[in-house]
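Dear Dr. V.,

Thank you for agreeing to look over these. As mentioned in my earlier message, I'm a first-year student in the group and I'm still getting used to reading structure tokens, so any feedback on how I've presented them would be very welcome. I ran two proteins. I've put each sequence directly above its structure. The first is here:
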Amino acid sequence: MSIARLSDLADAAACRRLVIKVGSALLVSKGEPRRAWLEGLVEEIAAARARGQEVVVVSSGAIALGAARLKLPKGGRANLADAQAAAAVGQIALAELWSELLGARGIVAAQLLLTLEDLEDRRRYLNASATLGRLVKAGAVPVVNENDSVATQEIRFGDNDRLASRVAQAAQAQAVLLLSDVDGLYDRDPRETGAQLLPEVRGVTREIHAMATGGSGSGLGSGGMTAKLQAAEIAERAGIVLAILNGTHDRPIARALGKGIGTVFLPRRKDAARKAWLGGRLRMKGTLVIDAGAATALGAGKSLLAAGITAVEGAFQRGDPVTIRDSAGHALAQGLVEYDAAECTRLLGRNSADHADILGYAPRSAVVHRDQLVLL
């Protein structure tokens, strides 16, 4: 049985494993936890487990909680050092909060702090996947957050929406619920007269992205609708359903699923596990610009050859992830490159027959092999 509508997200036969993402603005108010609201959400988690579903939580709130305890300005986001210090204090409070409330329902809570590199590096990703799987099978509810106490501006998710989709991949979940401050995705800014809620989206297109507004309205979080659409793209590549629901109500999941209020993103594809991981990567080391012929070849499932590359950007090494885009700047694919940037520049536009003479050694079959490449 597959997920076809919002109500299916409460069906254990269609959705055995579920990731629920909770943002800072929902969990924290004026530096203190919104306990009554959170108790209601924990009741919903307990109800999901009672009907046979397994739950993983992705929870923001550590920086907001820690900043209040340290009395830091701007909610702990004035600079990186403040954010890291606030997170170090806030993670203790956040873990204690979830442990207490889940424990009151007889549920064991587990804490898992992840960095971008934990899910971008294949070996570390598999380790995280194994840990999540074991915790869930043991009956615990993993509570996941980005490890902001060590993350830097350059190497971080920056929002828990995309983290939730990556965690869903690693946890082999069927769906992700993003609890937001709006009912879902609207065809324009929801504050505009006549804005219409989209109940269902099949595939995130450029037109869908154009409907989104970036930024977080609360000032607490770091995501916005643009980040949620990026999260939907990551989920889609793994065949995972993603839903945006209004979390500001009491027991928000029951309200949204029961009344059908929200936006559900139904995937049009399901890449194999490795390609889904590759397609969900967020940090690229460089870019290869290609001509129209190479773009057509990629669309037909071919590897990327040097003859179709028109420009090389970035300083990358063999095995690094790179973006492949066309001359108009549209990202077409991403993959693991077989040569470093300097070698790619030397091979630029040259036929394969010339590669041995240029490189001085037997060339590889492609610059990016189709087995290490995913279309976007």
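The second protein is here, in the same arrangement:
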Amino acid sequence: MGNYDLKPLVNLFNKHADPERASQMKAYMKGQFNYLGLNSPLRRELAKQFYSAYGYPLPEQLEEVVDECYVMPFREIKYFALELLVKMRKKAGHDAIHLYEKLLSIDPWWDTVDLIAPSLAGYHLRQYPEEREHYVKKWIATGNLWLQRSAILFQLKYKKETDTGMLTEIILQLKGSKEFFIRKAIGWVLREYSKTNAGFVVRFVQQHELSGLSQREALKWLEHH
């Protein structure tokens, strides 16, 4: 199979490192992660250069490549790995959900979770709706803030395909949470769905006692349209 060599990518990233921007990025993320200081457009441009020179990994190499990115010290390499998974998600196969789930728990924060939950886990669970209940129950039961946020957000892009029964059940289980990231996610998923079904969201907010934050976020789009 041969190894997929990430060294040229790392060299490219290092060459464009910006220590001043890196410290700003680190501060913005509450000092939790180290950065090279690449903004998203530049990072994606460099990734594009790397792909055009070296191509993409094979689907069976994906997990190994992602694992390798995830042990590197800089956050931008993790972003690269996640964006690679999104590019290759159609080829990833049924077992990819185990990788996505694993990644939700490695150095989790909103920057990675909010990509994995809707665009990777959510994509998978759209293909395999019979598995949704299993993962949702499991994630909620962990009590882990980021897995619970993922249970709320996996349907973020489902629009008309949203399972409103399941969404209701998830929100009702988590709406009492004091966690900012849970309250915000509840509002976000409802706001997104309000673009598809305004009536459902308005009724939902009227019928259920949500936190002020969830409620404000949920109705934000409707108030401006």
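From my reading of the second output: The chain is about 65% helix and 0% strand. The longest helix spans residues 110-127. Does that match how you would interpret it?

Kind regards,
E.
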